[in-house]
């Protein structure tokens, strides 16, 4: 009897240690060796969501395009947006290269041959360009020469783009994990398990990093030690939409056309998940009248269709694109409907926001700008091929990748 009691207590204790990640608190991993964060200067778009919060917003206006300035051809569709810093565009290609191009002319400065496919946008941090290959390598090269500085093999497929903030690279993989890697050294700081594959970039701000897996769970981890602070269950399977952070809130979308806002600072406590599920059962059995609210919930709105692409956000609004070819805006604080505009073509890339315009690329090959306040289309520019990577605004150009394997730079006359 005593032995059985000891075993039960041991199992309960181990369960609590596992759930609340006690070990990282007791034995914290090493901190980052630097505080390097990609540039937010005018004319720069230095990583997939532009900033570590993955907001996909720039306060600088996009040029009204009148011509294709140049295009850079590759052998396969471009699936990742470039990063542009100090007049240089860095691009991972699906034919096994990481290339640096003059942003104004498209002339090749250098190329680093990986020999592997990639659908991950690079991140430019300090003197390094960080990128990832589909089979699972994260590499850092010198941004001036393309010379390899370090490489880390995560031994699992990578579809997500790296996100860099305060000296750490955050990237998820098919191992159902989020990895934190030191920018300068390539040393693994910590790794944290997620419910399922991570195929979308994370969002970082201060002490929190938010990541969504395909297993219908959004996790918020402590950036110091990888301890899970909050597990948020959407009840919907995710297919690639990425979270973003704006202030104290994290936003994300799910299939079924739902957009969510949660408190990124919320922290679970012992028995919290058990009590929540118990209340759900009581509600289903009609033993309580009010549906329980999950810890961290701020608002959720069912918009319709499927929203499997990353959102973009400003302080005032959240913007997204639906599978039915429409772009929409919701209020950031309460999720109220602001507008919705049908573009007349399927959309397979996430929107971005440049100043007061939402930019999106379509399967018909158009880059379209929509006013953030009214939802009215402002301009429409055709490139002649289906757009397969999100627009990037840097300096006096807009950059988009296409199904014909080319990166296009478009701009004014």
Characteristic terms for this protein:
single chain, 413 residues, mainly beta, five-stranded mixed β-sheet, four-stranded antiparallel β-sheet, 9% helix
Short description:
This protein is mainly beta and 413 residues long. It has helices spanning 2-19, 22-26, 272-284, and strands at 57-58, 67-73, 83-85, 88-92, 97-102, 108-113, 123-125, 128-132, 137-142, 148-153, 163-165, 168-173, 177-182, 188-193, 203-205, 208-212, 217-222, 228-233, 244-246, 249-254, 258-263, 297-302, 312-313, 317-321, 326-331, 337-342, 352-354, 357-361, 366-371, 377-382, 392-394, 397-401, 406-411.
Description:
This protein has 413 residues and is mainly beta. Helices cover 9% and strands 40% of the residues. It has 3 helices and 33 strands. The protein has helices at residues 2-19, 22-26, 272-284; strands spanning 57-58, 67-73, 83-85, 88-92, 97-102, 108-113, 123-125, 128-132, 137-142, 148-153, 163-165, 168-173, 177-182, 188-193, 203-205, 208-212, 217-222, 228-233, 244-246, 249-254, 258-263, 297-302, 312-313, 317-321, 326-331, 337-342, 352-354, 357-361, 366-371, 377-382, 392-394, 397-401, 406-411. The chain has a 5-stranded mixed β-sheet, with no helix packed on it. Strands 2-33-32-31 form a 4-stranded antiparallel β-sheet, with no helix packed on it. A 4-stranded antiparallel β-sheet has the order 3-4-5-6, with no helix packed on it. The N and C termini lie far apart (84 Å).
